[in-house]
Amino acid sequence: MQRRTKIVTTLGPATNNKEALFKLFKAGANVVRMNFSHGSTEEHLHLAQLVRQVSNELGLHIAILGDLQGPKIRIARFQNKTVDLKVGAQFILDSDLDTNAGDETQVGIDYKELPRDCKNGDILMLDDGRIQLEV
User: Fold this and answer.
1) Helices marked H in the chain — which ranges?
2) What is 72-135's CATH number, 3.40.50.970, 2.40.33.10, 3.20.20.80, 3.30.70.2860?
3) pLDDT tens across 102-115, in order?
4) What is the mean pLDDT of residues 67-89?
5) Lowest mean pLDDT, pick from 15-24, 29-38, 123-132
């Protein structure tokens, strides 16, 4: 009988090598998830090639699942760990701000192209949509 159940494993720093992949596949993993929110295109390509190499050596069919959420815009830290944002108040996302200088009025971000990629009226979602800012 052919097994239809999939055992999915997410690859990360501890499993991004040939020895770890051999162990995962021998233990029954038959799908690897690659999280494209972290790492470069070159790293993902290298890892996919490594998965193919190991699966071929073991004679197994291993599926590659790409988590396509992509990179997120990361905010820096707040001076006092957390802040309370007021509804309707101005809040600035500043790619030139020091990484620990965030407060109730501003915070640093890691995406310098943000001003060019958004326009007035756009909605920016932070914290997986729990916070919404209007440009």
Assistant:
1) 18-26, 41-58, 114-117
2) 2.40.33.10
3) 999 999 988 888 88
4) 83
5) 123-132
pLDDT of residue 22: 98
Whether the Cβ atoms of residue 26 and residue 58 lie closer than 8 Å to each other: yes
pTM surpassing 0.85?
Answer: no
Dihedral angle computed from the Cα positions of residues 76, 92, 126 and 130, in that order, rounded to the nearest 10 degrees: 120
Strand segments (E) across 1-135: 8-10, 31-35, 63-67, 92-94, 106-108, 123-126, 131-134
Q: Please give the distance of CA 62 from its chain centroid, rounded to a whole number.
A: 22
Identify the CA nearest to 39 among candidates 19, 63, 13.
Answer: 13
For residue 114, the model assigns a pLDDT of 87
**109 vs 55, 89, 100, CA distance in Å?**
40, 19, 11
Domain ranges of the chain: 8-67, 72-135
Secondary structure (3-state) at 3: coil
The one-letter amino acid code at 106 reads: Q
